[in-house]
Amino acid sequence: MLIEEFDPKHNKITVRVHSVDDLYVLYSFIKPGDMVTAKTSRKVKFTEKESARVPMILTIEVQNVSFQEFAERIRIRGRILSGPEKYVSFGSYHTININLGDSLIIERPEGFTDEDLEPLKEAEKMSFRVLLLVAIEEGEATIGILSNYGLKIVATIRENTATKGISDERSSLIKRFFSNIYKVLIEIQSKYSANYIIIAGPGFIKEQFSEYLKKQPEFRNVRIITDTVTSGTVSGIHEMLKRGTPQKAVQDHRVTLETMKIEEFLMHIGRDDKLAVYGYEDVKKAIEYGAVDTLLVSMSLISTYNIDQRNKIMHLIKLAKNTRSKILIISNLHPAGKQFERIGGIAAILRYPLKG
After folding, report:
1. Which residues of the chain are modeled with pLDDT < 70?
2. Where do the domains of the chain lie?
């Protein structure tokens, strides 16, 4: 997710959706009474026999929000407040579909609290700012930079790696080929500090270059992912985008992080070492003692229409922030997240054991 603009003076925030997880966060974030502005289309009747869907920008007052996981979109239904007068009747109802890549403005009349914004900030933190793409095949590689603002192809490296079966000579040529790619990546990395690199291509060369890169000190803290595409050309880069590899890589990393934290929590519970608690009252007590290292909260507790319950959870998050606890919002779209939801959806990993 990208927070494109935050205007606290007018109680507005503009966000762009990058992943299915982002859609779920928005589904949980947007509530009845909010005003949402986005591109949409509406069926307009011109004559008795002639009608067509007309693209337009509408603002609606939200009545309800639904999440269609398999269609990868959320549907926001509400009363039309503004739009092109010749096409809409103010006060009538309309449903806006928000898909991957879409941007929308959310306005909340009473304003946004820091706790309200926490899930959006978490989602933005887990989104990529810059991601390096390397399409590679025997003797050719193309490097691209993917940012929240688009794709830029920065280099094509070509090297003759063909030999007449002399393994030492081939090994030397491959090493030189990899070294030339590495030099370009070092230059890019020094400027952008990417957290992810995707290396894709046909055959085994992508794995070979991935292993080569992992040994370089400059990339030891960078997440390197491999994928299969048909060539090491610009077409290979575009193939990665069409397959959704960048979004899947970032999303998988988020799921891994959440799963690891849930497993850490369950490990402490299993050992009965007093370094984990769950349930609202026990977690609240641990926060008040300043003992919480990481607060784990299921997104389902934030997205609930039970306002009293939601306010209680938001109060816990605020308390945790005041005691410098880390906060992790857990999606329930993956198995570990669903398991966590079933045991109550609120837990904490502690800095030290609590007595009693």
Report:
1. 69-70, 126-129, 148-149, 163-166, 253, 303, 305, 356
2. 2-124, 130-243, 250-350
